[in-house]
Amino acid sequence: MRGGRKIIKLGESLEDATEVQQPDAKPKLVIQKYETIMYRYYYYIRFHKMPFDKALIQLEQEFYISSGRIADVLVGYAGAMKKITKAAPTLQQLNEKYPHYSWQKPKK
Questions:
Q1: Residues spanned by the domain of 40
Q2: C-alpha to C-alpha distance for 57 and 37, rounded to whole angstroms
Q3: Residue 4 falls inside a structural domain
Q4: What is the pLDDT of residues 2-38, one digit of tens each?
Q5: What's the CA gap between 70 and 92, in Å, rounded?
Q6: 20 to 30 A from 21, CA-CA: which of 4, 34, 41, 106?
Q7: Which pLDDT belongs to residue 106?
Q8: Is residue 17 part of a domain?
Q9: Whole-number Cα distances in Å, 81 to 4, 16, 47, 49, 87
């Protein structure tokens, strides 16, 4: 089976191994993480007026993934990012959607 994996128990030959299905290409939790990254990016760009590169560095520290991967997510989901930007959620709406993140206005 293409994309499948075999589980081999100690002392078992490869032919006797159990075939295991690969998970979906984009599991639900990965999609949710990408959505959160997009909202956080919007927050830093819109409310903190951060330049692109600084926003990527901040997101890299928050999500423990490389800034290159974050840029790939933002480009790959450009349509969703446009919808977020067009909807222009307020800080209160962001806080309601993701209450475990800090959505404070930047201090001047």
A1: 28-97
A2: 12
A3: no
A4: 555 544 455 555 455 444 445 556 688 889 999 999 9
A5: 25
A6: 34
A7: 79
A8: no
A9: 33, 47, 16, 17, 10
Domain count across the chain: 1
Cα 56 to chain center, whole Å? 12
H or E element: which one contains 101? none
Rounded Cα–Cα distance for residues 48 and 42 (Å): 9
Neighbours of 38 (CB within 10 A): 21
Name residue, tokens 């830093």: 44
One-letter amino acid at 2 equals R
pLDDT value of position 105: 84
From residue 94, alpha-carbon distances to 13, 27, 40, 44, 103 in Å are: 53, 23, 9, 12, 7
Amino acid type, 12: E
Is residue 82 domain-resident? yes
Across the range 66-70, mean pLDDT stands at 94
Residue 19 lies in a domain: no
Q: What is the pLDDT of residues 34-56, one digit of tens each?
A: 999 999 999 999 999 999 999 99
